[in-house]
Amino acid sequence: EEDPFEEDPFGDADSDTQPDVQVSDPLIGWNRIMFHVNDKLYFWVLKPVARGYRAVMPSTVRVGLKNFYTNILGPLRFVNCLFQNKGDAAEAELVRFVMNSTIGVLGFGNPAKKYPDLALNDEDFGQTFGRWGIGQGFYIVWPVLGSSTLRDSFGMMGDSFFKPYYYVEPREAVLGLWALDRVNTVSFRIGDWEAFKEAALDPYEASRNFYIQYRKNQVAK
């Protein structure tokens, strides 16, 4: 199977290698509850569904869907590259989007991957706010959506305006398209979360510290 990510979102899952990141966590009571809820949702719902989906859906179809969902976020990445004054990256995103939308047939193919200069630039509004000097604020865990910060939560609202499937009618279809993307993504990553938890002394703290450091690294790129 083709790896659906340019980089591993968990990286080194060994908690001993994760830096001690200081972050304000005034909602720790709520956050731990939501962490537990999301963990149970993964094991009781998302993982079984993703495992069944992977069993019946050919890998070529799953990779095609991954490519499609990645491609439709091209305008989001393009705009955020511009806002961060990354002209070359913005140009690459524009060419990548046009190439994959045409030659790649609406993005189900990924012909742009053959060209190193058109590598994916994973930019969003949370990162843009960070580049503008806005601090992360406090840490928060959202139901279903998972780890975030105050800054990234506002960033997600900005991101939503550039996600085409948010404008699909009826509104129930939006949830279906989002769920398909989530299940398809997890179908490539079954086992990653389990390994991360097993390696951590306190999975909640390890997850929080990893998320903050990961976002810091993304902003610094």
Q: Report helical residue fraction.
A: 55-70%
Total strand segments = 2
* Biggest sheet details: 2 strands, antiparallel
Q: What strand line-up does the widest sheet have?
A: 1-2
Radius of gyration: 18 Å
Shape: globular
Distance from N terminus to C terminus (CA atoms, Å) equals 28 Å
Rounded mean pLDDT is: 90
Structural class: mainly alpha
Series of secondary-structure elements, N-terminal to C-terminal: HHHHHEEHHHH
Portion of residues in beta strands equals under 5%
Summarize the structure.
This protein is mainly α and 221 residues long.
What does this structure look like?
- The chain is mainly alpha-helical.
- It is built from 9 helices and 2 strands.
- The protein is globular and about 50 Å long.
- The chain starts with 27 loop residues before the first helix and ends with a helix.
